[in-house]
Each structure stands twice: as C-alpha cells, then as structure tokens.
Automatic annotation (TrEMBL):
GO molecular function: oxidoreductase activity
Pfam families the UniProt entry points to: Aldo_ket_red
UniProt cross-references to Gene3D superfamilies, sorted A to Z: NADP-dependent oxidoreductase domain
Protein name per the record: Aldo/keto reductase
Keywords of this entry: Oxidoreductase
Matching PANTHER family: AFLATOXIN B1 ALDEHYDE REDUCTASE, ALDO-KETO REDUCTASE YAKC [NADP(+)]
Species per Swiss-Prot/TrEMBL record: Bifidobacterium minimum
GO CC, any one term: cytoplasm
Domain of life: Bacteria
SUPFAM superfamilies: NAD(P)-linked oxidoreductase (SSF51430)
Length: 293
C-alpha cells in the first residue's frame, strides 16, 4: 500500500502524481496521459496535483484539469478516495516567442479561474485550491482574500498557497485560518532554500507539499548533488529517485511529494518510495551531500 498521510481533512497518499508534464510542452499525448493517471490510481495513488495553467502556451486552456477529470470518470476504482488539488494565479503566454508562465493574482481573475477549474474538474467543490504564485502587482492579502471568498462560497473545500515565503504563509494563515491546509513550495536536493517554510508549516501543523521533488523534468541544474542518492540507492537496490523522495518524506510527517511523470513506469516506481526505510547511515550520507544554502 502506498504511504498514507493526512492532508487537512483528506486521508490521502504522501506521494501524489504531479500532472503537469502530461499536458504542458513535450507531453506524450492524451492517450499516454490517461494511461499514466490510471496506472498511478491502480497502484494506490490517491492524490493528484494539477493547475488551471497546466496546458501548452497558445493552446487550449485547462487541458490538465480536463485530463484529470476524464481519467477519473473513466477509472473503475473508488473515485471518492482521490483528492485532487488545483491552483489558480498562473496562465501560459509567449514572451520573445518562448512559452512562459505569467501571473495574474487579481481577485476577479482568481475567482473566475477557480470557478472554471471546478467546471473543468467536474466537481461542485474543489478539494484543495492553491493560490499558485504571488503577483508582484497585487498586494498578497488581496489575492488571498479571493481564495477566502472561494472557500466561503463552497467553490473550494480547503485552501493552500504556493511559492510562498514565511511572511506570506503567516498572512495567508491570518486570512484563511484552519482552511489553510497546505503550502506547496519547490523543495528537492537541488533546491533547499525553502527549508525555512518547511519548518514553519510543521510548527503551524499544516502540510508541506514539495514541487519538482526530483529537481524538475528538465535536466537537473546540478546533477552532482544526486550522487549520494545514487550511492544509497545502490545499497538498497532501488532507483535514486526513490531515495530522493524517501529523504524528502523523512523531513517530517507533514511532508508530501508530487513527482511528475510522462509515463506510467516512472510514477509506478516513485510510489514505492514510501516503503523505503533510510537508516542513520543513509541519512548521514544524504545530509552530507545536500546543498545547504
Ligand atoms: N506550485 C508550483 O509552482 C509548481 C511548479 C512546478 C511543478 N509543480 C508540480 O510539481 C510536480 C512535479 O514537478 P516536475 O514535474 O517539474 O518535476 P519532478 O517531479 O521533479 O521530476 C519529474 C521527472 O522525473 C522523472 N521521474 C519521476 N519519477 C521517476 C522515477 N521513479 N524514476 C526515474 N525518473 C522519474 C520523470 O520522468 P519521465 O519524464 O520519464 O516520466 C520526470 O521527467 C508537477 O507535475 C506539478 O504538479 C508545481
């Protein structure tokens, strides 16, 4: 069984499927996307992470949320066990001819997009709705007040913030109270700058969800950082990616990981990370290798 943890009111898996690679640039097509989500669910994954903005720049909007909805409605397993998180505040654009991720944190945009997210997901109420990323043009609290309104109106059951600093988490907590159940920040062996927010969420008793937990699906910026993980992986006879995820999950009971995948094989392997027990020798090797910023 895949490791379970409580994400606010949801009993879900500590290892979720990050949907993004299935619908942004370089995805392997609609059929592979459905196959990958079904494979994850069949293997016991009960947590899917998507976003309003997970589509190709210039293409049809919200294809990530639509793919998740289609995969869940055609899946024959227990749909009510699956928690789906989505996010609003980003949209895709082109700058200098290249696909970009732009932000729009205006309250009216967040409210419109969240309602569109619920429609695309085919739900009355979104399980977990994140404010995707602060918009420097909009006071942070104004954006979070829109998330507050969405929870009050029942568009979302619970709320989260993403790409948030300790100060922003505290501001969100003031506005959202107990409805703030999660912070989703980048965290991996190549990205430990957010360790302060991981510690802060533990103090607050809310979940910390690591995005790009394997360093992202493009070539890691610093592959040497993963060497200690490869050494520990050899000792256990598993992939180094499982060791990375197990190390992240060992940072606290409040930690979740959402590895992305383009294909069933990779998410199926990642889902085993919760079975891996890292002993003190393993931890010493890993802690020594990880970048401390
Ligand atoms: N909140 C935010 O601002 C934000 C930003 C970025 C991402 N996210 C979320 O975080 C999720 C994960 O991030 P990510 O997709 O950027 O990167 P990631 O999870 O760090 O890395 C995904 C890559 O790792 C590979 N992989 C996964 N499991 C593996 C395994 N067991 N063995 C070997 N390779 C494995 C995948 O390979 P294949 O390609 O071969 O399948 C994919 O290329 C996203 O899907 C999204 O939901 C959130």
């Amino acid at each position: 069984m895949v490791l379970h943890r409580d994400l606010g009111p949801f009993d879900t898996t500590a290892i979720g499927l990050g949907e993004m690679p299935l619908t942004i640039e370089d995805n392997l097509g609609h059929g592979k996307g459905i196959e990958t989500i079904h494979a994850a669910l069949d293997a016991g994954c009960r947590h899917i992470d998507t976003a309003w903005a997970y589509y190709c720049s210039g293409g049809e909007e919200q294809t990530g949320e639509k793919l998740v909805a289609e995969a869940l409605s055609s899946w024959t397993g227990p749909r009510d066990e699956v928690s789906v998180a989505t996010k609003v505040g980003h949209y895709r654009n082109f700058t200098d001819g290249r696909p970009t991720w732009d932000v729009d944190g205006r309250p009216e945009s967040l409210i419109r997009h969240a309602k569109e997210s619920a429609l695309a997901l085919g739900v009355d109420s979104i399980d977990l709705l994140y404010f995707h990323r602060p918009d420097p043009r909009i006071p942070y609290r104004e954006s979070v007040e829109a998330i507050r309104q969405l929870v009050d109106e029942g568009v979302a059951r619970t709320a989260g913030v993403s790409n948030a600093s300790v100060e922003q988490i505290d501001a969100a907590r003031e506005i959202l109270g107990a409805d703030l159940i999660a912070v989703q920040n980048q965290f991996s062996p190549i990205w430990t700058e957010t360790a302060d927010t991981m510690a802060h969420t533990e103090e607050l008793g809310i979940a910390f969800v690591c995005w790009s937990p394997l360093g992202g699906f493009r070539k890691p910026k610093d592959d040497a950082v993963f060497e200690p993980f490869r050494r520990v992986a050899d000792r256990h006879g598993v992939s180094y990616q499982q060791v990375v995820l197990a190390w992240e999950l060992s940072q606290g009971e409040h930690v979740f990981v959402i590895p992305g995948a383009h294909r069933p094989q990779t998410i199926l392997d990642s889902l085993h990370a919760g079975d891996l027990r890292l002993d003190p020798d393993d931890q010493a090797v890993l802690e020594h290798g990880v970048r401390k910023d």
